[in-house]
Amino acid sequence: MKYVKVQGVSIPALGFGTWRMVGETCARAVENALNEGYRHIDTAEAYYNEAAVAEGIRKAAVNREDLFITAKVSYNSLALRNIRASLEGTLRKLNTPYVDLWLIHWPNPQIALSDTLEAMLRLHDEGKALHLGVSNFSIKLLREALQYAPILCNQVEYHPYLAQASMLALARKHDLMMIAYAPLGQGRVMKDGLIIQIAERLGRTPAQVVLRWLIQQDNVAAIPKAEKREHCVENLNVLDFELGQEDMRTIASLDRGQRFVWPEFAPEWTP
Questions:
Q1: N or C of the chain: less Cβ packing under 10 Å?
Q2: CATH top-level class for 9-252?
Q3: Which pLDDT tens digit goes with each residue over 189-205?
């Protein structure tokens, strides 16, 4: 496994995403992922699959200390009165005494960020969340968050069709990790002609080329999801090759500012 090291913390660069997977499907997918070698599992309160993730971990029989589990507090749970109950519910469902990384899933302008992070810090100090971070934070919001708490990462949508150059520059400046979700553009990027050409030349799949492009960048991890075991294995097999600089630039040139995940409560995305 390749690791991203920020602030002295090593995080598996390739994680396993579980968005839109629930129940037995989720449990089986997590079990398969862990059996194939994944050690970074991403879930969230809003996915309603934390218990299924725990079941997959139980069946795979991987030691807790060998896992890096990322969880998220939902948009509607950021008030002071809800924060503790949110994390304790997550820990109970995941059947773990702590999570490695706990994120604000989406910012909520109705709730003071300083209050939320203050409450999260208390739980961090109790050892229930080893590291804190944010998700879907604009550059402006990330800079604000950095004033209130030790932030380890920002998890954002990132793939060849959506450049995150400014965000990545800020992450590197502050020694933060950027976790790329929807790294394959919900499958659309894999159909791109240039990606297909590079993949055919290298004897790889389009998904492998895109994932390699992401994790080959400093401070970047990716969390693709894969319900089928064969896709799980395919995504994991990106660690034994590298892309040349020309290919890296070609893929970066595909940016079209295209988002595939942007709910109505998303923040204004301005510098």
A1: C
A2: alpha beta
A3: 999 999 999 999 999 99
Whether the per-residue pLDDT at 271 is higher than 60: the answer is: no
How many angstroms separate the CA atoms of 90 and 64, rounded?
15
Look at residue 269 and tell me whether its pLDDT is greater than 90.
no
Sequence-distant (≥ 6) Cβ neighbours of residue 214 within 8 angstroms: 158, 159, 180, 183, 220, 222
- Distance (Å, rounded) from C-alpha 90 to C-alpha 7? 25
Q: Given the residues 47, 98, 158, 181, select the one marked as catalytic.
A: 47
Establish whether 47 is a catalytic residue.
yes
